[in-house]
From TrEMBL:
SUPFAM superfamilies: NAD(P)-binding Rossmann-fold domains
Organism of provenance: Flavobacterium zepuense
PANTHER family on file: NAD(P)-BINDING DOMAIN-CONTAINING PROTEIN-RELATED, PROTEIN YEEZ
An example Gene Ontology molecular-function term: aldehyde dehydrogenase (NAD+) activity
Listed name of the protein: NAD(P)-dependent oxidoreductase
Sequence intervals crossing the membrane: none
Length: 275
């Protein structure tokens, strides 16, 4: 794709990922449009007022698009109906608009490595049977299926724990770890915002067309260490670790396609003040 020519529509532009991805795309010369409802977007981005639940606005939004980066989602909410409506129905509405108005578009969908079975016998792989435990990953699985069966040119990027660029996500981790009573030795795959951009560029170039791909850095890190990095002490334990591969994603496919994270570990991010 010529980065100087071609409309890229981004949903979820003001969210954790979108607000950090868009400035990088603009800086690199991509022509970015953001589907928003009365919110400000980064400089250099064209606003398209619209709503995933309003099909009429979606048809106007996708008109002339060469690529769509679908980031919009509801994650942590006690309202499971809202999660399903946003993540599944919203995606379906967008897919239908694309099929009608811009069927040749490249549709890039952000999903999650939370889709893998908690009892997996190895790090989660793209061809594993899926058994998501909660509404968010379950709705993402349903949306992935909708996209794969759409007949469009699609790619699915499954991201693990996202952090960096001052997003505060890592700083919020301790409260969730404590609430879930996780074992301190549990290792979790991570990805920095800078390398979400790396993966998105690969997808825009067509390298990931027709694939579901895990995107992670090079070093799944224990929760004990992650909490230490943000100044929190986690209760130590030498008890056996159940579900040792939970939240750990296998990135072999991404590596085989040429993905190389520039922020290889969370420790590198800390050393270079990228957290």
């Amino acid at each position: 794709m010529d980065r100087q020519v071609g409309k890229i529509l981004v949903t979820g532009a003001t969210g954790l990922v979108g607000s950090r991805l868009l400035p990088r795309l603009v800086e690199d010369g991509y022509d970015c449009f953001a589907l928003v409802r009365g919110k400000e977007v980064p400089a250099g981005v064209t606003v398209i007022e619209g709503d995933l639940f309003d099909p009429a606005t979606l048809q106007e939004a996708v008109k002339d698009a060469k690529a769509i980066i679908h980031l919009a989602a509801v994650f942590r909410s006690p309202d499971t109906d809202l999660i399903w409506k946003s993540n599944m129905e919203g995606t379906r509405n967008l897919i239908n608009a694309v099929k009608t108005i811009a069927p040749d578009v490249r549709f890039i969908f952000a999903s999650t490595s939370h889709v893998y079975d908690k009892n997996n016998p190895h790090p989660g792989r793209e061809d594993d049977a899926l058994n998501p435990q909660h509404a968010y990953p379950a709705s993402k699985v349903a949306a992935e299926k909708e996209l794969r069966e759409s007949g469009l040119n699609w790619s699915v990027l499954r991201f693990p724990f996202v952090y960096g660029d001052g997003d505060g996500h890592l700083e919020e981790l301790p409260k969730h770890v404590v609430a879930a009573k996780f074992h301190p030795a549990m290792r979790m795959s991570t990805i920095h915002h800078r390398d979400i951009y790396t993966a998105i560029i690969m997808a825009l170039q067509g390298i990931i067309d027709g694939r579901v791909v895990n995107i992670t850095d090079e070093a799944p890190t224990t929760l004990y260490e992650l909490l230490q990095l943000v100044g929190e002490n986690m209760t130590a334990s030498a008890e056996p670790l159940a579900n040792p591969w939970y939240l750990h994603a296998d990135a072999s496919l991404a590596r085989s396609l040429g993905f190389q994270p520039s922020v290889r570990t969370v420790y590198q991010a800390a050393q270079e003040n990228l957290i």
